[in-house]
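Handout, section B. The chain below has 423 residues.
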Amino acid sequence: MRLSDTLTRGPAELPDPPGPMRIYSCGPTVYQRIHVGNAVPFVFAMWLRRWLQRTGYEVQLAINITDINDKIYEAAPGASAELARNATEWYLEDTSGLGLGRPDFEPRATETVPEQIAMIEQLIEAGFAYEVDGDVYYRVSRFAEYGRLSGQRPDKVEEQEPNPRKEDARDFALWKANKPGEDTWWDSPWGHGRPGWHIECSAMSEKHLGIEFEVHGGGLDLVFPHHENELAQSRALGHRFAKIWMHNGMLRLGDAEMHKSLGNVVTLQNALATWGRETLLLFYATGHWRKPLDFTDETLASAAARAEGFRDVFRSPSQPAPEGSWERFAAALDDDFNTPEALAVAHEWRDHALLRRALEIFGLESLGELPEAPPEVVELARERARARAERRFDDADELRRGIEQAGWIVRDSDAEFQLVPRS
């Protein structure tokens, strides 16, 4: 299997099964309900884990929860800890609604502060960090490979966190001294404060997956500065850290990328309530993970039609798929996890068993679990079929309206009729 690697700008071969395959994906900063764009890395990480397990790998997946961050303090002055706890529960509730299960590890930044402090101490001892008035900064100039992941020239990097007392404007915070009005803090060798965003993920990933693991994922917006800084921190300590870096494309709402900070937000909770998990998952699968994806009424309606197309296959008799069908499906996923191509292959099948096997990778096996209409609706459909046979078309239309009012659609077919739930 091959995956596109941001670090090398090319394909990277995965080790042969059983691996191991250890995957870390950056999760949300919890200060409000996540939007449908935040869910993209979660969905693709969970799908990748399913596919790797199906192909014989021993997989461990960690998706973190950032519950210490400037955005949380800004959103709830004096009540940041309570907001972080509440928003964490919202995140767990909403992503569970996708029906993909949970990662093997879901570390929270608040649970790994001792590990973060230990890493900062090691960086200071190694000469890669220094303290200024209770803040601790990373020396960017000491790490020769800085900028390699994001493609930025080290001498062109702009200041990330202004402080006139820093040695270098490019240096970034590892520890932040407690400021007036900040209600949550931890004790440290440098006084009361809290860790910086980047050291959190270095500590969380290494705690659960080790100082060397196979894949690091996250949104394209995290390449710089977040992932660049993670890489610099860990490799400065001699840790290999992630071998492959996967960055998913951004979800677009209209002409703009979807960001909570811009206000152009569709929450995952509302999307699930409006469209349902099956349509939403098929929407995500129709785009290649590396490319942007447009969230519009048209693309969601298209995904809903795809879901109905799969259901129609299960309403008809199963037909054996041509030889080599599964191999074509597997080849699409093994080639940079190309979900649109894999779906295109599966759309050709009328083989119920094979199609269920494929849909299970995406958490969509439920498309083959067709509900049965209640007896009273079945009887209405039979009366309608008799009316049509006797050319009583006005009666047939009236019976059809009664069936629709009961929440079902009747379709005429060679097998007399089909009853389909109204979407």
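Note. DSSP finds 14 helices and 15 strands in the chain. Compare this with the example in section A.
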